Amino acid sequence: MPIRKRLALLLLGSLTVPLLQGWTPPEESCDFQRVKAHPDPKALLREYLRRDFSGEFESASPWKMGALLCPGHGPGWDSATIVASYSIGVAPPGKKVLSFPVTYQILGATWSDGSIEEGTRRERVVFVLVQTPYGWRIAEPQQNPHVDPRMLLNAPMYSSDGRRQLQRLVDLSKKRQN
Question: pTM to 2 decimals?
C-alpha cells in the first residue's frame, strides 16, 4: 500500500476507507451537513482559522457545522488555547484528501472557570480536509478553540487579575507579531 494511503488511513481511521474507495456519507450521528459549500480547500481552512482565532467557536457556530465533516461527534470544550498567531503550510498534492500543516504561536490556555495558564511554545497541527460531493470539509483535528487573547479580555468569567494576565498576553502577542 502506498505510504500516502497508509498515512490517510492512520489520520482518518474508519472514515478514510470509504473516502478512498468512493465517497460514502458518514453515519447519521455524525450530523454531516448536506449543503453545497467550500469548493476551495485552502480557502475553507483559512476561513476556519480566522473564525477560530476571532473567538467564534467559543460558542455554537452554524458556519462551523457546515465546515466540519462530522460536527455531531465534536465535544463541548471547557478550555481554549490562547494564540498569538498561526500560519498555514503547504499541503502535499492530493485529490480527495489534503493535509495542511498549521503552526500556532501559543501563549497559554484558559478554562471556563476563568483560570489562565501562561506558557509560550510553538505547536504544529495537521488539518486533514476531505472532498465530498458537497464540497470540502475538515475531518481532523478535533481541537479546542485557539483564540486571540484580545477576544477574551471582556469575557465575564475573568477576575481583575485574570484580565491583567490576559492584557500581558495581548502585549506579548503584539511583540511577537512585530
Answer: 0.83
